[in-house]
Batch of 3 targets.
Target 1
Amino acid sequence: MVRHIAFAVLLFVGSIDATIAAQPSVVTFNDDGGWCWFEDERAIIVDGKLIFGSVAAGCHQPARRGNIEVVNYDIETGANQTSVLHHGFELDDHDSPALTVLSDDRILAMYAKHGRDNRICYRITTRPGDTTEWQSERVIVPSQSTSVTYSNLLRLCNENGGKGRLFDFFRGYDGSFKPSWIVSDDEGETWTARGL
């Protein structure tokens, strides 16, 4: 009986070793990034690259505390590159950027503090699909009494006579907790605020 148990244990341990050996390696995309469920799209795939945004806590590198970051991970090569959109913005996972792809394949990132002010910040990449270089940060103030949080980007390509229309849905227009939005008919160059 002891022999059978020992053999069974060997088979079990052997199968665990084989399973562990067959597991793919763990990939760390960002060693200090947080985000919440209230912003979308938090991650997109563009030309074989996984692109996502987060807020750094500064756990390992205190200078990163509150940075709004975008990670670009090449799925085929495993190359990983992080861009900082705003240094020391605010340490709050609700500030993570929403992302969308514009008609010319440049990437738009929008982010705002968690109800602390009336500003929505955004940046657009300088080249299509390339997150290594971004235009300067721009700011939209939907109204002076707005208390912005939670960007949710959506691009509807058939709107605006087929030229496309961008929407950023957020909370806080005119100090309310109701759904609110801003609209752009020129790929993020100008915005109009709307709200309930």
Note: The chain is about 10% helix and 40% strand.
Target 2
Amino acid sequence: MARERIIFGFHAVKSRIRQDPSLVAALYVQDSRDDPRMRDLIESAGRAGLRIMTVARERLDRLAGHARHQGVVASIVAGEPKADLDDILGALAEPALLLVLDGVQDPHNLGACLRVADGLGAHAVIVPKDRSVGLTPTVAKVASGASETVPYVAVTNLVRTLRSLQDRGIWIVGADASGATTLPDADLAGAMAWVLGAEGEGLRRLTRETCDELVRIPMAGTVESLNVSVACGICLYESRRQRAGRQPRGRQIGLPAPSGPG
């Protein structure tokens, strides 16, 4: 029997309808809400042939587990497991750009990071299984559809995964306030993975030590750190900016690194 899960909020639900309406098992909308945004959603769902149920707000509260659903809840068929890293890297036509999140457990932060990753073309988001909130309904809502489009890879051992990426010639760059290199001075045009830690805690020691390079974002104000999703946006944007301006030096899509000059 197919597994189902709940998503809620206009962005998440409409994105799922646009991407693959066949996986929407049921759509629940609030009976007391009749505004242009709701009518537009209902029209989109009707064109897709979806089953729409008008229910009281109290039922939506129970389905979503809280009242922050905007009057829209959908039950969707859980998709196939995300491709593993070998599948993702093997399908790339450009140098790998990966986002690794070390210990981000707040669903709003994870959802925002997924949205940033989608907007800036990260090829996958990698997290440790035991130190991530997972793809909850709140994550899906905040991600505004990105949780359904960005490959999300949960790994058992993050350090081992980073070393495996290094073996493929992918440069591992940690965003860390102690980094010796500032963001504008870093070479980010080749195959690489950005590694960011949880807000307040930063990178774990072993994760930090595994990175090939630590890069810091120059701060001009009085605050000492940025929200992890803001930092993700700055770091991924700089990578994309550099790629648009020059050829990568030495690092390719993610094939094994050359063993020597011969």
Note: Residues 255-262 have pLDDT under 50 and may be disordered.
Target 3
Amino acid sequence: MSVDINADLGEGAPFDDELLNWVTSANIACGVHAGDPALMRRTAEAARRAGVALGAHPGLSDGRRERALSPDEAYAATLDQVRALQAVAGPLRHVKPHGALYNMAARDAALADAIARATRAADPGLVLFGLAGSELVAAGRRAGLAVAEEAFLDRGYERDGSLTPRGRPGALLHDPAAAAARALRIVRDGRLEGVDIPLRADTLCVHGDTPEALAMARALREALAAGGVDVKAFGA
């Protein structure tokens, strides 16, 4: 049994270098919601030195705020940002949309298909990361991509398996030990406790911009090791 651990990096958070010691995949901001070419290059170089798989983290300029977006706009935004990271970082392993783009594509099949098509246009060998059971995962499969279904270490869930919107109570988890224990049960049992729904996890996300990021990542690695779960980049 194995699982990938990914973190969103290159967004100006203070823990990027330290997190690379605990994760196996890095989602690097592509200069729109965060980052710039110099930071993209530095983050990619640090990830390669740490043996961490590189991925693009394309997003909207307003980051976590949803707005009206056409499939054509989603396609162009994704393809342009993935190619921008490829230009400074070289070959990538995966693509994971950021924030509002990710959440919208989890629900909207047309947006999800546009992102999957853009990912395939950038490189048909890329893995598409998406919320477990979501439209984005289904779209990746329709596009012939390898997909990794994602669960979140540090986020709350609704009863339908969607993420609790930020700003609502319970949206962010703050107890590293409890979050890690929940994640271990997701990996081993394929279910989310409390709401008792199936939840597959090929990769687990640790948000790099939270105060508890390092403690969460350490607790997760310890819990997985104790539970006999190997940690490696998806598809490695």
Note: The first strand starts at residue 2 and ends at 9.
